Each structure stands twice: as structure tokens, then as C-alpha cells.
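Q: Can someone sanity-check these two? First one:
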Amino acid sequence: MRGWRGLVWTGLLAACLAGCGGSAPSPDGGASPDAGSVRVATSIAPLGHFLERIGGGAVTVTVLVPAGQAAETFQVLPRQMEELSRSRVYFLAGMPFEEALAGKLRGMPGSPKIVDLREHVDLLHFDCGAEDGPHGHTSTASIESTPSTGGHGGHDHGHDHSHEGPDPHYWMDPLRVKRVAAAMEAALAEAFPAQAASFAANRAALDAELEAVHARVAEVLAPFRGGVMHVHHPAFGYFCDRYGLKQEALESAGKSPGARRINELAEAMKDAGVATVFTQPQFTQGEAAALAETVGARLVVLDDLAPDYAENLERMARALAEGLAR
């Protein structure tokens, strides 16, 4: 009996030691617990989706901003910094918090390579002082002729945040995403050359999907070219630019409107016959809901950070078409 118990305890001890050893961090910087894969990271879910599509099983992707939270007011948690320290590549989107984050990452021993995705697309600029629209709303208007690496402006934890300089929401245009995908593929191939052919094939498949969703969205929105999309937060400038629409934001220079401003906007929107106001789930709905109620318009929620990219763009197109047709 004593010998039998000894065997049992020996086996349990061996199992515990094996389990503990398996959870230890790998000394190979960027190596993932998934055998043969490499750790990479980015800030937002749509970019994480593209990385997963291109990387397949060869990459493990960390996305910093959780679902339902606004990237404009996000702050990186200490445990996320620890995760980033184990990543091989960080794909920088251009969100406000990433300017400080990039500086911290560059100062870390064995820091991940930083790929600034803004360098690979033509950026729009927030036209903060413009009153191009019939109601004087802030809109995204001008296109940079050369790629820009500027940030989104300073933000705080409140809903009052600046909109000036380059607009970072470029993933809302599927054809710009093709350039982003090319940059992702190149960086992944450099980090994991053994999988370069797989990355290239995956990126080609993603490109085909992006072309297809662009064609479908363009067809849905073609009858509404020149229409105005009334939004709470100006995240749809690239989408509007691609499909011949205009974005007019409830926020002005990054500031939420007060009651007086909402009433002024409501009168102008009533005169224009606006039937739909669009908002996003990451922001409080109070101002947009009050405006929609005053105007007698529907309030429709669109999510620029949804991870199911192609399906989300088509949902947006249908919602816009329905709203503009009223």
C-alpha cells in the first residue's frame, strides 16, 4: 500500500511540474504559446481582423481596445503593456493613445517593431473650422496628397476631444484597407519568413473580398451620391469620401453640443428634412437621442469598430440607403 501511494504522489508531482513548465513565458521574444505562431498586436478590432486573415494560424493577435469602448478615450492597462512586451510587431493605427504608447514601446528592452499603418494610405484631414454643410457641422473634407504620420489630436477621458489633423479612421474605406493589408503582409513576412508564401496567399484572398464588398456597397449607395450622413462622432469620413457622400457631425471641433446647440441643429435639420441620425455604440447616446427626438428622426447605431468587417460595411450601406431614402 505504501509503495502504491508513493507511485501516485510521484505521478501527481510530475504532472504539476509539467503543467507549470508549460505556462512559463518563452524566451523567444514574440513567440506565442501556440506552437509555431508569432505574437503581434494592434489597437482596434478591424485591424486585428485583417491581421488574423493574413496571418492565419501563424500569428496570435492581441487587440488593445475592448469591444464597446471608444478608442479616442482609451488608455493602455499595465497587463496589456506586459502582453505588448512579448509581441514581435505592433501595428499602429493612429489612435490618440498610441502616440504615447509608441514612445514607451521604443524604450522597452526587446521592444516590438512598430509599423505605422498611416504611412501606407492617403489620409483625410479633419476640417475643424469648415462649415461646408448646410448646417455648419464639422466634416471631413480634404485628402492629403502624401501620407501623414500625425496623430488624431489630444484626447482626454471625457467626451470632449479634439478633431484636428489627420483622420485616423481610414479602415472605413475598403480600398484603402488593401494598402494596409499589403503593409501587414510585408511586416509579417519579415517577422516570420517561413510563412511568407502563406501570408501572400491569404492577403490575395482578403484583397478579393475587399474588392467584392466595395462593389456591393458602391451599388447600394450609388443612388444616394451627394447625400448627407448626419453622425454623432466623425468616424465615417473615409466611407463617405469613397462613396460620394458627405459626413456632418454633431460634435463640433471634438466637443459635444449643449442643449442650445442641439436646438439650433434640430431646426436646421427639420428644414432639411433629415430623417435619420447615426451614432456609435462606444459613445453615450444622450445628445444624439435628444437631437433625433427633437427632429422626429430615427436614431440608428453604426459601429466603425465592429470586427466582422465586410458584413459590417454592408450593414452600414443598407442602413444609410434606408435613411437617405426617407
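And here is the second, same format, sequence then C-alpha cells:
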Amino acid sequence: MGLQPGRPVILDVDTGVDDALALLLAVRSPALDVRGATCVAGNTGLEPVVQNTLRVLDVAGAPHDLPVAARWTAAT
């Protein structure tokens, strides 16, 4: 019997401490197949969130072509 494929997921993060840990664990988990990440502004602006996300994914060993998307719109 072979290994079961991981559950495909896309993570929506603001990559503070909690989301950084979640990214690390998700990328390294055989139970998950991380297909991408979406970045949103949280306790900081969108640009630092994207940079933090890319750094964490690199440290976690995620593929370099893993899609990372970001968008910000002002609340109306």
C-alpha cells in the first residue's frame, strides 16, 4: 500500500508569528499538499506580510514556484 496523497490546501495568511508557524507545519506535513498562499494585511502592511510569507516558505522548504498571491483594497 502506497502513501496517501496529502489533502490539497491553499493557506490564507497575514504571516505574523502564528501564521508563520502554521505555514512551516503545513509545508512539512505529509497530511497536507500546500498548493499556494494568499496574503492579507493583518497587524502590519501587505508588503511586509508578503516578504514574511516568502521567507517562511523558503525556510520550510516549499517549492520555489509555489504560488503566493496578495491583494489589498481599502474598506469602504
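A (reply): Looked at the second one. Strands lie at 7-13, 32-39, 68-70. The chain has a mean pLDDT of 91.
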